[in-house]
Amino acid sequence: MRLILFGPPGAGKGTQAARLLERHPSLAHLSTGDMLRAAVSEGTPLGKQADAFMKAGDLVPDSLVVGLVVERLQKPDCADGFLLDGFPRTRAQAEALDTALDGAGIELDKVVVIEVPDSLIVERITGRRMDPETGAIYHMKFSPPPAAVADRVTQRKDDTVEAVTARLSKYHSETTPVLPFYDAKGLVVRVDGVGAPEDVALRIESALEGVG
Ligand code: ADP
Ligand code: ADP
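That is the input. Now the predicted structure with adenosine-5'-diphosphate docked in place:
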């Protein structure tokens, strides 16, 4: 199965990716946000260039992100399928991905769009916390961390009201224009992202029926 998980910041892409991987363990999870954060914390040249963009809630330039993904897609763990989470985020990224997949003779199966209205996004993002040891995603109100991990959860530097407002605006101006590209290929399925994560997971699973 070769999927793109698409949606605004805070839609639940990471949360649903984790659930999809439980059900489909052979999929490789390619989160460009996670890959870029790893590059920042390792202090690589890419991380040094990406850091300021990420802090401000701006997109990292296509020239930096595309290479990262194209290289990663060639790793053996992607051979049995992959889940792209947070990529492509611009039309140029979608076109570069298309060229790379064409070159490898690979086709995407679906682009799953998790739809959440803007009015819910700020609360989802500012309440988000992450367990640095397991990578598990929590929310202080909607899915609070258990007592054993509550003391160690961290908050992302860009999960502020200012940065999320910028990210949401970029999502509408730069990222939603990607959808007509995949609509034209008949790949887009839209899933309501409002409701309990397990209900959203069921909607995604039924949208994927018959795939892979
Ligand atoms: P994304 O990867 O799209 O930015 P996340 O999966 O990190 O989104 O989710 C953002 C925040 O919203 C997290 O704190 C997560 O726990 C919470 N969340 C995810 N899905 C839901 C949901 N269906 N209802 C309420 N909160 C959710
Ligand atoms: P969220 O889902 O909460 O918006 P991500 O973890 O997917 O956050 O991304 C965090 C940040 O990393 C983005 O705001 C952006 O700066 C950068 N980033 C991630 N993926 C991309 C991408 N495909 N293109 C450009 N920038 C990206």
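The chain has one domain: 2-207.
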